[in-house]
Amino acid sequence: MKLKLNISKAMQGDQVGFTYLLHTYWNEVYHFILKRTQNETIAEDITIETFSKAFDKLAQYNDQFAFNTWLIAIAKNVHIDFLRKNRTQNFIEIDDEDNISSTHAIADTTPTIEDEIIQQQNLKKLLDCIKQLKPDYQEIIQLRYFQELSYQEIADELNESLSNVKVRLLRARKLLAEIIEKKK
């Protein structure tokens, strides 16, 4: 009963509903992803992305199924997407002189001057978008992505609960994505 009420609240944009869902299911989703990734930072990022997608698609949730099952399904898909984006390239092992001649086929991945200019321009555009956020959201984005603090470190820095930090970061990312989308 309490779950349905909070899902309904979240669908209406009520912060209490979002916080309840995040607080109730965070550990389950996080530990599920942590088992798969074996990396706390990646697991936190995937878990945040999972809740972001779930909250965006909350209207599509079918209450005939358990909410945590729906979240885990989203988490699996986010993890698969993460793996696809981060596939590593195969490297050629050089074990004798015969293989040295084949190394010339390896592409040089060093960024060119043009690549660096494009990265600087993209960073400037991103910073311009971040400046459009409210100061609280700017601060949490800056702490997480530029200072690379963990969620717990951010909570300590801001003297807030961990769940509040997670919700604020989720909202900041969502608002930033909307700003970026409008700029396109």
Give a short synopsis of this structure.
This protein is mostly helical and 184 residues long.
Strand-residue proportion: under 5%
What would CATH call the architecture of the largest domain?
Answer: Orthogonal Bundle
User: What's the number of domains?
Assistant: 2
CATH fold type of the largest domain: Rna Polymerase Sigma Factor, Chain: A
Question: Low-confidence parts, pLDDT < 50 over ≥5 residues?
Answer: none
Q: What is the global morphology?
A: globular
Distance between the termini: 42 Å
What is the number of strand segments? 0
CATH H level, superfamily name of the largest domain: RNA polymerase sigma factor, region 2, helix turn helix motif
Counting DSSP H or I runs of 4 or more residues, the number of helices is 9
Helix content: over 70%
CATH class group of the largest domain:
Mainly Alpha
Nearest-angstrom radius of gyration? 20 Å
Summarize the biggest pleated sheet: none
List the helices and strands in order: HHHHHHHHH
